[in-house]
């Protein structure tokens, strides 16, 4: 193992490795600690009960973060403080694109926040061009010899970010880390990784950027939140980016622990379509009897007669065949199909929908983000189901009105009763629209 | 309580007697969907009496015949589950990632199977001291927790490299990795040897060979998977 492997990280070593290793000043840290009958893990900050986490002979391990190598009382961590040993290229930012005046304003504010190592939140609606807005901040931070990381809960987001950043910072080598990385760890000034990989870092980054904070598995995962705070230096800054901050982040905003930058308008300058609620008590019972809410059938018919497409979201995979059957009977001459996570033809079906081969898709929450159909309406049956979090609902509603040609769209939810997540989603959208209207007025008065 | 393998919520289905009588009922540790991914052996007449492998017509499968030629006798081995994809995933989590709590997934099944056997001494296959230091547990002993067993065998250090890291040929020619503890009298005893996975039979035949030489009357073997 090399010295650089330990810079700003905690590398898991078993007892023998720890004895054999010859690195001067290597700090050896314990992996777990016993507190009464609870086990505390220094890597993920979680406690677990002795019943589930004991080994024979009074040894213990952490069952929460075992995926990164078992953290146990038989092992320890090797750590070296981050020295920021980097050689800077002559030109750092090789991106030559242009930001809109709105983006430019936010970009400057973020740059300022990163200079001051603040905790910030970029709350921008979907499709606002978030990645380009952070380039200026990263470039200046790199010039200050800071160590930077961009983390996302989703591997596909990381894989998509990597080429874009490598193009924008062509002379800076970037490390890409995720659970399936084949090449070994490399010490780099700029790192792109999944949020799980942050668990391996300890006081490493001067600025950390976390993209799509609200998405699974990051949101509500205490271990990953702990890892985020641990991965940055004590004086380091964090920038969260999302279209839908959850409750914890909103609370931090209210307590003024976060500096927020809003970007409430889409690139075409229109507001988000607001969610309309329709009550459908006992829709599930009725569905089992072969009935769907009449308003739903009418809405789909209206969409189809206006020559638009739509997405119909439902809570569970098991409901798909039932809904499909009922709709087959009701809408005899329209083309539609179902899409779900484990569907082998998922990508083909989505492409066929884009090509206009289908009038609408019935789907579960897998199409909630990352998929753009230009001129669609969005319907959700059973939006009060617990599988839909408020951020998922905002993302679903955000599928509508993405095109300049049709910047509005109908977003209708059918609920058996109003739930907190539905209300939260409506509230978040109206908040962004309120801010958006102010901005629109400001822009028109210029 | 959540499923140990997929972490979904487990619901307890108690009947009325279980609710009111102080019977210690077996608590589920895995959900039905995960349980269904494992496939149990159903031993019948058409199975090899040596290893439980399905037969077509012969008295003994070719592998067990080879063992019989080699040692003069063969083991009456009893596998509990097929070594399928689910079992491979389970073994990687339990043994190699070291999630000791996963012993609960099969502890009950293994112990029930052992109770059906007749034996004098219950002997688990040992792991090497190096493995024990890093892993922290013997995966077979994890299944036997709460039962009385005798650790008759110890590994000659570094002889028992991990079998799973070897090819079939390398396994078959491997050297005797075990030695017998001298302080237990095994002459004339019925032994039940327990291992986690039976692949070629090499490990169990090495262990059984030692016990036969020491004068055991009969050696039976049992493994979680084959």
| Annotated CATH homologous superfamily of the largest domain in chain A | P-loop containing nucleotide triphosphate hydrolases
Which regions of chain A have little confidence, pLDDT < 50, spanning 5+ residues? none
Shape of chain B: globular
Helix content of chain A: 25-40%
Catalogue the unreliable spans of chain B. Answer: none
Instruction: Count the beta strands of chain A.
Output: 21
CATH topology of the largest domain in chain A: Rossmann fold
Order of helices and strands of chain B: HHHEHHEHHEHEEHE
| Overall SS class of chain A | alpha/beta
Largest sheet of chain A: 7 strands, parallel
Provide the spatial order of strands within the biggest beta sheet of chain A.
11-12-10-13-14-9-15
Per DSSP, what share of the residues of chain A sits in E-state strands of 2 or more residues?
Answer: 15-25%
Shape of chain A: globular
Give the strand order, joined by hyphens, for the main sheet of chain B.
Answer: 1-6-5-2
User: Number of helical segments of chain A?
Assistant: 14
Label the CATH architecture of the largest domain in chain A: 3-Layer(aba) Sandwich
Instruction: Tell me the major beta sheet of chain B.
Output: 4 strands, parallel
Rounded mean pLDDT score of chain B = 85
Radius of gyration of chain B: 18 Å
How far apart, in Å, are the first and last alpha carbons of chain B? 29 Å
What keywords describe this structure?
heterodimer, A: 446 residues, alpha/beta, Rossmann fold, 3 domains, seven-stranded parallel β-sheet, six-stranded parallel β-sheet, 14 helices, 21 strands, globular, B: 226 residues, 2 domains, four-stranded parallel β-sheet, two-stranded antiparallel ribbon, 9 helices
